[in-house]
Amino acid sequence: MVVTPSSSPPQLPPGCCPKCGSVVDHPRIPFSSEDALAAVNDVHRIVFWEGFMICAVPQPPPSLLLFHSSLREDDSDLEGPSSGCTACAVIIRANKLIVANAGDSRCILSKGGQAVELSRDHKPELEGEQERILKAGGFIHDGRVNGTLNLARAIGDMQFKQNKLLPAEEQIVTANPDINTIELSDDDEFIVLACDGIWDCMSSQELVDFVREQLRTETRLSVICEKVFDRCLAPAVGGEGCDNMTMILVQFKKPVTSSSAAEDQSLPSHKSSEKWLKGSHELNIGF
């Protein structure tokens, strides 16, 4: 899902997934005209779930509260004890880039060709995650929470959130997101948001190298996404490259300089994040 300052948020009517028979109703909520939003989610187990955080950005932007409240609301809406989903979202506001992540969908930045991970994969073995899981009464076996879930944070998965004596952020599995805010600079080239179907096949640096090489001869970001999928897809059923894949590629353009702005008074204001955005494309494979 991508919403930019020059586009309207998509209308999301009640939808269904024929493969799982689950119906979700997503209202349309206006998005700020000065912000750009990109978000991916990765459903695990049974439920079909989409539309992570299409919401209004208040003025002034309390981004931390926005991300936290959105994840909490989505978390309480998922039905069933074993329904769950990861989510990774980015808001670009002027020259600020804000990343929220719960789960193992990942956001990376290409900074002069170097991969910078802007989110952290919430795996049970991580020190902070392991401490919370054990303190809440859970255990980790073979890299999985209570021997089943390979994530320490997720929206849904309510069977891991049943301790009424603990707040949401201290449950065995929590939807509480990590928040990371950076300031964009001239050597920032593009960001990629993708679910673990991509990261199981390519490292962050490998993906940056691959995308940069494609950008030498290809300007259509959709084609580059397709080439990433072709690179990752398994030749046969089973093994690495068989997971579902979702990817958003957002390319940045150089900011308007003061000299060029003086030559053309019609150029957009520096207050808008649109000046940073060259293009974005989202593709999905599988379910």
From TrEMBL:
<dbReference type="InterPro" id="IPR015655">
    <property type="entry name" value="PP2C"/>
</dbReference>
<protein>
    <recommendedName>
        <fullName>PPM-type phosphatase domain-containing protein</fullName>
    </recommendedName>
</protein>
<dbReference type="InterPro" id="IPR001932">
    <property type="entry name" value="PPM-type_phosphatase-like_dom"/>
</dbReference>
<dbReference type="InterPro" id="IPR036457">
    <property type="entry name" value="PPM-type-like_dom_sf"/>
</dbReference>
<dbReference type="Pfam" id="PF00481">
    <property type="entry name" value="PP2C"/>
</dbReference>
<dbReference type="GO" id="GO:0004722">
    <property type="term" value="F:protein serine/threonine phosphatase activity"/>
</dbReference>
<feature type="domain" description="PPM-type phosphatase">
    <location>
        <begin position="19"/>
        <end position="252"/>
    </location>
</feature>
